[in-house]
Amino acid sequence: MKLFRLRGGVHPESCKELAADRAIRILPMPERLYVPLLQHVGATANPIVHVGDKVLKGQLIGSSQGIISAPVHAPTSGTIIAIGDFPAAHPSGLTAPTITIEADGEDRWMESEEVADPFLLSPDEISKRVGAAGIVGMGGATFPSAVKLNLSRKNNVHTLIINGGECEPYITCDDRLMREHAASIIEGVRLIRYAVGAVDVMVGIEENKPAALLAMRAAAKDTEVKVIAVPAMYPMGWDKQMIKALTGLEVPADGRTADIGVLVHNVATAYAVRDAVRFGRPLVSRMVTVSGGSVVEPGNLEVPIGTLVENLFQFCGGFRDKPARLVLGGPMMGIQLATAAVPIVKGSSGVLALTSSEIGNVQPSPCIRCSSCVRACPVGLLPLDLAAHIRAGDSNASVALGLKDCIACGCCSFVCPSHIPLVHYFNFAKGELMEHERIKLKQEATKKLAEARNERIARIERERAEAAAKRKAAREAKERAAKEAAAKVATETV
Ligand code: SF4
Ligand code: SF4
Predict the structure, then answer these.
(1) In angstroms, rounded to a whole number, what is the distance separating the alpha carbons of residues 276 and 71?
(2) pLDDT over threshold 70, residue 494
């Protein structure tokens, strides 16, 4: 099949050999699980259990709120021992509302409804089951999958693309999932296609995963699903890049993939969809790669949601030496962790413990205007100019140059011969912009409240004055009537 030319991209050392050939192992159930109520894009789920409640595996413990949200479920059976703030997977060490479960060791599932032939369900019912299972984009985007399915139906999506790119160095969990569970993934893909009514369906897999390509092609044989090898480059796993490679279509800078009739889901999401629709099982675990030069025995694990990152490292033999950096996700777009005592969430594809030689620590030097960063940017931005405006404090100019379109992929920093941490500038500037926008929204909301209050006071005063005028008029009319009546009596008496 013809592939289309891509803009930008880089070829970092893959480092996938550390874990790629390690089959998925199931992590033994930890004593405690810490399940955050916000593991998705959208509104935080609302806890519906209380401290002391007994729960079964798969039981709903947090209900979704509003249109864009996702429910959360108990990843094992046990007792709720706390509901409150717990450190989240964030560089700042911020906390987030979290439900803590003490496992009872039985790992007992709640009853669920198995469907013999899920293709006899209506598309609406499939969306409903996906929503109830709390499935979100498991490639890291964490957008609620049912919302995406419903939007796609409304937008008459014609093409479904399943993303098996997994372009981040070190991360191999999707590769292993495709090698070991290809038939289940293909069934999930066909269910998504049926639910949205797409005509074409393609699975894009990087050519550096030959075993996954083989397994997926064998599973897709005699189905409508085409499995296609795409070039191994970073960021091939970015949805817009995968769409461009497979269809030649470009998603508008501020648009969504549905705007051009395309829906993209990750392979792990398709796997979770099959479990939810066929077996009625919610998303309570995921595959995670544990890797990096500091890890004694890197590998791929199936992990209950809410397991602490430190449990994964312990299971993989601990550290050879003290890691220089802990990362949740891949080294290009992952989050640097301040501590390993934070929970795995639905969007966590990997945890890395990197040595100082793996992270490198070269001091930046001045820009030599080589334009390597411009050629590497997959979005088509001018990173050197963006950085210059940010350094000069001119955020308006950086926004005009497309700062908001930057996907923080880090390609520009990766190729820069002067080792300028360009992506850090962009993340910092985007953080400042968000803060300004938040303050602006707050000021506008305060202004609106003050205006509404002034209007209310004016209306009350107006109504009071009108009521007083009415009372006065009524009193005067009454007095007038009394006077007239008295005058009439006086006249009749005379
Ligand atoms: S790659 Fe680095 S040195 Fe080259 S133009 Fe961009 S910022 Fe300057
Ligand atoms: S981090 Fe932003 S500016 Fe740099 S290459 Fe990626 S999208 Fe372009």
Answers:
(1) 13
(2) no
Report the number of distinct structural domains present in the chain. 2
- Structural domain ending residue among the three candidates 259, 287, 304: 304
pLDDT digits (tens, 9 = 90+) for 209-228: 999 999 999 999 999 999 99
d(CA 169, CA 431): 26
Using an 8 Å Cβ cutoff, are 271 and 177 in contact?
Answer: yes
The two tokens of residue 369 are 């205007």
* CATH of residue 203: 3.40.50.11540
Residue 344 belongs to some domain of the structure? no
Please write the tens of the pLDDT for every residue from 453-489. Answer: 999 999 999 999 999 999 999 999 999 999 999 988 8
Q: 80 alpha carbon to ligand 1 midpoint, in Å?
A: 53
Distance 388 CA to ligand 1 centre (A): 11
Phi, psi of 437 (to 5 degrees): -65, -40
Q: Each residue of 32-73: pLDDT tens digit?
A: 999 999 999 899 999 999 999 999 999 999 999 988 999 999
CB 422 within 8 A of CB 416: yes
Residue 81 falls inside a structural domain: no
In this prediction, residue 177 carries a pLDDT of 98
Are 296 and 435 contained in the same domain? no
- Check residue 413 and give its pLDDT: 95
Buried b (16+ CB within 10 A) or exposed e, 168-196: bbbbbbbbbbbbbbbebbbbbbbbbbbbb
Domain, as residue range, for 261: 16-26+113-304
Query: Nearest ligand, CA of residue 383?
Result: 2
Strands 285-291 and 262-266: unpaired
CB-ligand 2 contact for 9 (6 Å cutoff): no
Question: 122 and 246, same structural domain?
Answer: yes
Task: Give the ligand with the smallest distance to the CA of 385.
Answer: 1
Asked whether residue 146 is assigned to any structural domain, the reply reads: yes
- Same domain assignment for residues 295 and 370: no
Residue 294 is assigned to a structural domain of this protein:
yes
